[in-house]
């Protein structure tokens, strides 16, 4: 799981998928640089082969297997992309593009999809990555023993058929106009099952595993039989460095060459330390209420807290003007974007609503992780809520405990930072439909649910946009979540690293290490 983050090459392949007979086709540019279409700075000079690239990870990994959703979280995809090729990748402005896939084509009502694979692709052990391999992979991850969060997505598939060595047919249980977006992470990182509990799944990526200390480090070497453009570095060394400041200092000192960060102060400091950045608007900060338990089952209480928040002040204090305010579940770069109506701060109205609900002396516990920006955000909110007479107690938890509380809905209110809103189709369907995999708030709203269903099943893009906007407004009106800020996330690198891509328009920052090189 991402830190509460979970998470096609032409216009018809955007997340808005205008459903036509045209296939979503990948261009050569899409696969250059090891899996993203983002361009590298022109002043890097020619690419250099050889050397070792050292990468600082922001969290431990349990196992090297796409079944572990932690490996396919956005900050960890730089490791996943080395070992496994994704069928689909996230492109600019919320688009979803083919990578290992050549095309992903729907029928007229989006109930049947046909996946066309590249020819000649093999796993690192030499076995073909063909249509049967895709079916085997999806089937494996759908089973309870795989313990993959993606099983909920796999469960939407009614049947899979091998049409040819390079063609798979998917018959869905219900229409889904955004079906290809389910294959950008775990389901899309096609792999062979691990030989044992302590061995990695076998992928087709540009690198293979040399050695690993789970939770500590991993060393990868170039895959000599890779089907695509070979990785530039001979070797990749990953180190787990969970502490934000220590990870940044490792980059300054030269112990690492590239690190993940979500800390605004580090982005501001980086130029002065001769560091380069590759960041995109890949994160949204929100507050989640448990709407299944008092007092947050009362919409007036949630609306009161919504009216107490000054989103611009949160952005300025926590993200230092590096981001922007968020005004709902349709992100600012979404193709479904429309006129949004989010209430401005109004402390008088907030107090009035609390009094009406009988909670003028409201107090509650706020769960948050230990990251500096999370702690800052909680402190700012605590002060804002105090202005309307509400007492908020901040309770920090480690990521694992926080995730458990979220999935088991054992919380009152919690901090939730996610990349999910980078894909509107997936976010709305997974966060706000009763019984959905990530409906952590437990919110139910018939009007929103119907609008989301209409949006996901319609072949009319304009209608889909209208439906999603209707659902989004219901989310804002009833406030099962409070929307705070859209934030930059991504990588910082030393000046000696070449090939760092432009991901400034990426709502999911997905970088492959194969496209990076170490300057001599």
Protein model, in words:
- With about 525 residues, this protein is an alpha+beta fold.
- The protein is built from 14 helices and 19 strands.
- It has helices at about 30, 75-85, 130-140, 150-155, 245-255, 265-270, 300-310, 310-320, 345-355, 370-385, 400-405, 425-430, 445-455, 460-480; strands spanning about 50-55, 90, 95-100, 100-105, 110-115, 155-165, 165-170, 205-215, 215-220, 235-240, 260, 275-290, 325, 365-370, 390-395, 415-420, 480-495, 495-500, 515-520.
- Helix 7 (about 300-310) packs antiparallel against helix 9, helix 8 runs antiparallel to helix 10 (about 370-385) and helix 13 (about 445-455) packs antiparallel against helix 14.
- The chain is globular, with a radius of gyration of 22 Å.
- The protein starts with about 25 loop residues before the first helix and ends with a strand.
- It comes from Kitasatospora putterlickiae.
- Pfam families: SBP_bac_5.
Summarize the structure in short.
The chain is an alpha+beta fold and 520 residues long. Helices cover 26% and strands 22% of the residues.
Report strand %.
15-25%
User: What is the general shape?
Assistant: globular
What's the main sheet like? 11 strands, mixed
| Broad structural category | alpha+beta
Rg over CA atoms, rounded to whole Å, is 22 Å
- End-to-end C-alpha gap: 37 Å
Q: Residue share in helices?
A: 25-40%
- Spans of at least 5 consecutive residues whose pLDDT stays below 50 are 1-40
- Number of DSSP strand runs: 19
The count of helical stretches stands at 14
Mean pLDDT: 89
Classify the oligomer: single chain
């Amino acid at each position: 799981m991402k830190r509460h983050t979970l998470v096609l090459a032409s216009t018809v392949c955007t997340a808005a998928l205008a459903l036509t007979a045209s296939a979503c086709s990948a261009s050569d540019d899409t696969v250059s640089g090891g899996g993203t279409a983002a361009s590298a700075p022109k002043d890097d000079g020619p690419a250099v082969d050889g050397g070792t690239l050292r990468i600082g990870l922001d969290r431990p990994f349990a196992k090297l297997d796409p079944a572990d959703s932690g490996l396919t979280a956005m900050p960890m995809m730089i490791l996943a992309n080395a070992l496994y090729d994704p069928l689909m990748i996230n492109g600019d402005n919320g688009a979803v593009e083919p990578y290992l896939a050549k095309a992903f084509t729907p029928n007229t009502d989006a109930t049947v999809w046909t996946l066309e694979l590249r020819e000649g692709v093999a796993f690192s052990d030499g076995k073909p990555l063909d249509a049967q391999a895709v079916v085997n992979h999806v089937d494996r991850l759908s089973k309870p023993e795989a313990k993959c969060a993606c099983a909920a997505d796999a469960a939407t598939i009614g049947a899979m058929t091998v049409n040819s060595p390079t063609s798979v047919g998917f018959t869905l249980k219900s229409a889904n106009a955004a079906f290809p977006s389910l294959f950008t992470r775990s389901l899309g990182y096609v792999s062979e099952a691990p030989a044992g509990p302590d061995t990695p799944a076998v992928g087709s990526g540009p690198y293979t595993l040399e050695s690993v200390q789970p939770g500590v480090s991993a060393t990868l070497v170039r895959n000599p039989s890779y089907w695509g453009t070979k990785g530039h570095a001979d070797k990749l060394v990953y180190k787990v460095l969970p502490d934000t400041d220590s990870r940044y200092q490792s980059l300054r000192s030269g112990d690492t060459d590239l690190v993940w960060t979500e800390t605004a102060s580090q982005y501001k400091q980086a130029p002065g330390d001769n560091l380069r950045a590759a960041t995109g608007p890949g994160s949204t900060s929100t507050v989640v209420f448990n709407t299944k338990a008092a007092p947050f089952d009362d919409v007036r209480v949630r609306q009161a807290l919504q009216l107490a928040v000054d989103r611009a002040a949160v952005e300025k204090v926590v993200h230092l003007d590096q981001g922007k305010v968020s005004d709902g579940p349709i992100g600012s770069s979404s193709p479904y974007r429309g006129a949004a109506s989010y209430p401005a701060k109004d402390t008088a109205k907030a107090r009035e609503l609390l009094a009406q609900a009988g909670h003028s002396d409201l107090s509650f516990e706020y769960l948050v992780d230990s990251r500096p920006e999370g702690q800052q955000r909680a402190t700012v909110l605590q002060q804002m809520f105090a202005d309307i007479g509400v007492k908020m107690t901040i309770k920090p938890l480690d990521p694992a405990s926080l995730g458990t509380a979220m999935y088991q809905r054992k919380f009152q209110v919690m901090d939730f930072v996610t990349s999910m809103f980078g894909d509107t189709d997936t976010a709305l369907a997974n966060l706000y439909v009763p019984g959905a995999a990530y409906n952590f708030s437990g919110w139910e709203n018939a009007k929103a649910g119907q609008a989301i269903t209409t949006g996901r099943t319609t072949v009319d893009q304009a209608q889909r946009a209208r439906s999603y906007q209707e659902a989004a407004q219901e989310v804002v009106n009833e406030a099962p979540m409070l929307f705070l800020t859209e934030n930059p996330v991504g990588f910082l690198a030393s000046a000696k690293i070449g090939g760092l891509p432009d991901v400034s328009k990426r709502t999911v920052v997905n970088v492959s290490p194969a496209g990076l090189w170490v300057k001599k």
